[in-house]
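TODO from last week: model Manganese/zinc/iron transport system permease protein.
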Amino acid sequence: MSYDAWILLTGSLVGLTCGVTGALLVLRKMSMLADAISHTVLLGIVGAFFVTQSLNGLPMFIGAAIVGVLTAFFVQMLDSSGVQSDAAIGVVFTSLFALGVVLISFVGDSVHLDVEHALMGEIAFIPWDTLNFQGMNLGPKAVWMLGSVFLINILVITLFYKEIKLTTFDPQFAVLLGIPVMFIHYLLMGMISLSTVASFDSVGAILVVAMLIVPGATAYLLTDRFLVLLILSGLIGILSAITGFAFAVWSNVSIAGSIACATGLYFILAFIFSPKHGVLMKKIRNDKFSSSQP
């Protein structure tokens, strides 16, 4: 594959992986928790490096998943203790992220691990960091990492589809049926953590928030069906990656930033032209109703 094709494939995998999992957060009205997790997993990455002295992908995954679940646990604990949910997210988010920044300063220049790299990422460098096996070039590591996380997420959603759906729309009824609501909640947080750390090298922690939230929010305006919403979120993520990459190449600007802007563009279009929830369609229906009145 060509250099541009690898970048496009990586961006599409980011949009697909984050779009599908992020849609679940949008449905659960926990979108800002994605912002918190996307930053606090930095602590997990740094912690994994201090333990293993390696930037190998598996320890990073494990560290990020642990800290992501801890973030959700601490937020839930503070929320149940009477602290407002937005304040709980703010306290946990800033504390764990700041701890990660402090710890990363001890690494210094010994390894390629810094705050700017974790927050901003650089998708243009992805094709050069390849996976080699017995002398064979298997392509960028980011593609394998994102592809693996996507398959894990799809497997989890498939195995726990009914449980995820019930706990999303009616958690009280799910409790009555004996479904482990908190287990499903933390399972989702683990999925978000893995999706976030897999996207670090591509778009960074800041821009991955857009990929986690905006495609799901856009799909929410277009359909009321759960499965269709998940599929649409992934497709919008892919379409955003393609559109953003094309614009970045044409105008010679940041690829990751263009992809994030593309998600916002599609949200605005859905917000205006959505058949059911769009501002324009609502205005047309209101005008028709007003004109039909005597």
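Done. The first strand starts at residue 130 and ends at 133.
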